[in-house]
Write a structure and sequence with these properties.
This protein is of the alpha/beta class. The chain has 16 helices and 14 strands. Helix content is 43%, strand content 13%. Helix 1 crosses helix 3. The chain is elongated and about 80 Å long.
Length: 449
Amino acid sequence: MNLTMVGSGYVGLVTGACFAETGNDVTCLDVDESKIAMLNRGESPIYEPGLSEMIIRNAQADRLTFTTDKTAAYRDAEVIFICVGTPSDTDGSADLQYVLKVADDIAGVIDSLGPDQTPKTVVVKSTVPVGTSHKVRDLIRSRTKAPFHIADNPEFLKEGDAIGDFMKPDRVVCGVESEGAESAMKDLYEPFVRQGNPIYMMDVRSAEMVKYASNAMLACKISFVNEISRLCESYGADIKNVREGMCADRRIGNQFLYPGLGYGGSCFPKDTLAVCSMGRQAGLPCKLNEAVHEVNQEQRSWFWDKITAVMGTELEGRTLAFWGVSFKPKTDDIREAPAIALMKMAVAAGAKVKAFCPEGLEHLGTEFPPAEHAAGMYECLAGADALVVCTEWNEFRSPDFEKIGAMLSSKMIFDGRNVYRRQLMSELGFTYISVGRPPVLASNTGANA
């Protein structure tokens, strides 16, 4: 099948490469000429395990091409996926200007092909407020009498494991309102669900809501366990033990119930705010989702208060080393990353910050220029007074603690991801502050919290 992905960002590239992997002819369209030039050189503009290899393999097989030519990309496509960004406006609502501009461009090409063409299926894959796919449909209808189908197909891709999520999905959700759209979506996704995982065909508006409901629920679980972690500290309980006992209940499970610094990235913050915005527009305030967002944002400040309780509030002349800049492991995405928020607080308190991240440093210069980039995890520690662990990359899990202790001016680790064992930290003489667990205090640091 001939497919076009509009937008060669995270969703468009992963979707296009995976569809090409199953034999489809895929064109990735983008207005960014430098990005298309990079892709035509066989280089991926984003870091995602396995994606670069898949792009190169399918491009060499002529199943995956990249262009800035809108007319050529739309003209021969049987299915067009809209995968452009929907950033949050200042009030939290989704900005739909890019989605609607794409719809207008598609309408022009469909109209130029005339009424006798085989109807194309236009699929909204961007995460959009309920009713947006119908806005796309109505805009195209206002521009042409030529036939087409509309569908919504939300993505459920975890950054760092997106290839696996697409190739072996838990479920596929498709919002359709015509037999033509339903047939096209079933044909496209059939190769990915041969193990029996379901394809859910439903109405368009319900499909749009599935995406928001899913992400809002996951965000809720993260904020819930973080709030419980604060209570654990106040009452002398250990969130590790509490979590194990709670998650043994099969009704609760153990996914997305890890305490830490809160969620970040491009999805959960934006989608939670969009749900709140939809509630306000409907006159139905989403109080739970508003609280989820508030708890998440407060988690950074709460952890910073733990740092200043040990080091003091005036940090002029002090240096903090940060391990991990990306909002989660196995991605270079630093959007809404907790590490950035903590670095800003550190600089505001007068401290110097140094950072190392296996993949996130490339974007840090733009997002937060004051941070000094380190070439390696141990180089980051040189001249630092304390280490702050913000992302649980695998290479941070079993470090050389003797080397860490020797390089830091004080043996202090602030662990925002509960990577290390408290007993080990105590045996090694570190002051060790984590999330939802009693602190480990070493007398030689002068720590008093």
